Predict the 3D structure of the following.
Amino acid sequence: MRAIQNSSINCERKSRYFKSFYHIISGIILKSFSVILFLVSASCFGSNKQQLSVADSLFDEEKYTESMELYLSLFEDGFATPSMLLKMAYVADATEDHSFTLYYLDLYYKASGDRLAIGKIEKLAEANALYGYVYSDIDYLMAIFSKYRVEVFALIQAMLLCLLIYIYKKIHQQERPYAALVMQSFLGVVLLILVNFKVEEKAIITSDRSLLRSAPSAGAEPVTVIDKGHKVTVLRESDIWSKILWDGNEVFIRSNRIKSI
C-alpha cells in the first residue's frame, strides 16, 4: 500500500514538474520569437540607417533632388519605410510626375494601412482622369495584413509550437487532447493558406504613349495607346512582356513600362 502511495506521489511530482517545464518552455518560445524578430529588424534597418538619416536631413533642407537619389538607392536595395515612401511621393508630386506620385503613395498605403492616403490617391487620379483607382474594405484588410505579415506568421508558428509541446505532454500521460489537435490542425491550415495566398498583383503605367497589343510580340495587332498613371491588374509578367487587364480585356504591354505595386 505504501509503495502504491509513493508511486502516486512520484507521479504527481513528475506531473507538476512537467507542467512547470511546459510553462517555462512556452514562455521562452514566445519571447524568443519576439527577440528574433527584433534582432532581424534591427540588423536590416541598421545597415541602411545612416543613409536614410542623411537622406532625411537633405529632405528637411529642401534639397529634394539629392535626397531622392539616396531614397532611390535604398529603395532599389529593397529597403523602404512608410515615412520614406511618403517623402518620395512628395518629391515626385513636386516635380509633377503624377505616375510616380501615385506609385509611391500606393506603396505607402500598403506599408502603413493609412486610409488618409486613399483620399490623396483618388483625388490625384480623378484630376488626371486615370483608370483603376478604386479601393474597397478588402484592399484595406490586405494592406493591414501586408503591414503585419511577419508578426502574424511568427504568432501562428509560436502557437503551433506551444500546442505541439502540450500535445506531446498529454500523449505522454496517455491522454487524448482532441481539442488541442483540432486547434493545431486549424492553425496549420490557416498558416498554409496565408503562405500560399496571393494578392491580385497591380501595377502602374509609368511611360506615356504605352502601346497595348493583342499578343506578346512587337508584330502583334495594336489594341490601344495609353498614357502613364493608370493602374492595371497584372495577370502574368516576364522580362519583356506583361499580360494585363485593360478595360476588361487581356492585353500585353512592355514590362519596362509598368511598375508593380
In short: The CA atoms of residues 31 and 188 lie 21 Å apart. The longest strand covers residues 231-237. The first helix runs from residue 2 to 60. The chain is about 65% helix and 15% strand.
